[in-house]
Amino acid sequence: MIDLHCHILPGIDDGAKTLDDSLAMARIAVADGIHTLACTPHIYPGMYMNDGPGIAHARDRLQAELDRQGIPLKLVVGADVHLVPGLIEGIRSGRVPTLNGSRYFLLEPSHTTPPPRLEEQVFELIVAGYTPIVTHPERLAWVESHYPVFKRLIAQGAWMQVTAGALTGVFGRRARYWGERFIGEGHTHLLATDAHTTGRRLPRLTEGLEVARRLVGEREASRLVNERPNAVLNNLLPRDVERREVAARPSLIGRWWSGRVASSR
């Protein structure tokens, strides 16, 4: 499996604090079946002042240590990017890294309030030749009132990434409900860990993937952690990625929906 969202680089954001933490996270990921992992620290002016060259240097140092210790995990560069002025210029200059140098990058909206002009700004990024991957929409405080917005972003060409832990209740019943809804209704392109530690937010995909299998079947679940992440790393155009064929049975979706409505309120 491929995990395209992980805060594994030590000491540069709110993820791994030390090299030992990073190595422990890497071992957990490998034991879970993850062979490639994107190092995606936050880039948030005024709080996390990371940039492309600095992230690449940190990735190289951690990869060298993984290789020295015989931990079979390939690291690629990325970032968890906030929607700020000058983002397109930052990507073009390399200050803001995309995932493995591709057209795809992780875009993290504000958790508490919907960004002004979100649809227009995402459209501008797409017109500029990039594919934003909106991270963990199921965990945003404003998802209830803006669910149709995310569907319109997908129609524009954006992708959605759901957190594996959200599907297992790590972030509470509300995030679980919305995570299952995004996947169950076919509005999810990627499943990732968004891991920060070896504790509650650890780098494991398998438990969340099992939930996805129950919702959409084995083939589509595999696309969430294998085919589409591989397409991202190889910079395939969205139209080159095999179309999703969500095959969730109506009876399954009905049971899932009725069981989650009350808990989401």
Number of helices: 8
| Count of structural domains | 1
Low-confidence stretches: 242-265
- Briefly, what CATH class? Alpha Beta
Secondary structure: number of strands: 9
Widest sheet: strand ordering? 3-5-6-7-8-9
Termini gap:
34 Å
Query: What is the multimeric organization of the chains shown?
Result: single chain
CATH superfamily: Metal-dependent hydrolases
The overall average pLDDT, rounded, is: 91
SS strand fraction:
5-15%
> In percent, how helical is the residue content?
40-55%
Q: What are the salient characteristics of this protein?
A:
alpha/beta; TIM Barrel; 9 strands; Pol/histidinol_Pase-like; protein-tyrosine-phosphatase
Written description of the protein model:
The structure is a single chain. The chain is an alpha/beta fold. It has one domain (2-264): TIM Barrel (Alpha-Beta Barrel). Helices cover 44% and strands 14% of the residues. The chain is built from 8 helices and 9 strands. Helix 3 links the parallel strand 5 and strand 6 (104-108). Helix 4 runs parallel beside helix 5 and helix 6 runs antiparallel to helix 8 (250-264). It is globular. The two termini are 34 Å apart. 44% of the residues are buried. It catalyses: O-phospho-L-tyrosyl-[protein] + H2O = L-tyrosyl-[protein] + phosphate.
Please give the structural blueprint.
Blueprint: E1 2-6, H1 19-31, E2 36-39, E3 42-43, H2 52-68, E4 74-77, E5 80-82, H3 87-93, E6 104-108, H4 118-127, E7 131-135, H5 143-156, E8 159-163, H6 173-184, E9 190-192, H7 206-233, H8 250-264
Parallel strand pairs: 1-2, 2-4, 3-5, 5-6, 6-7, 7-8, 8-9
Helix pairs in contact: 4-5, 6-8
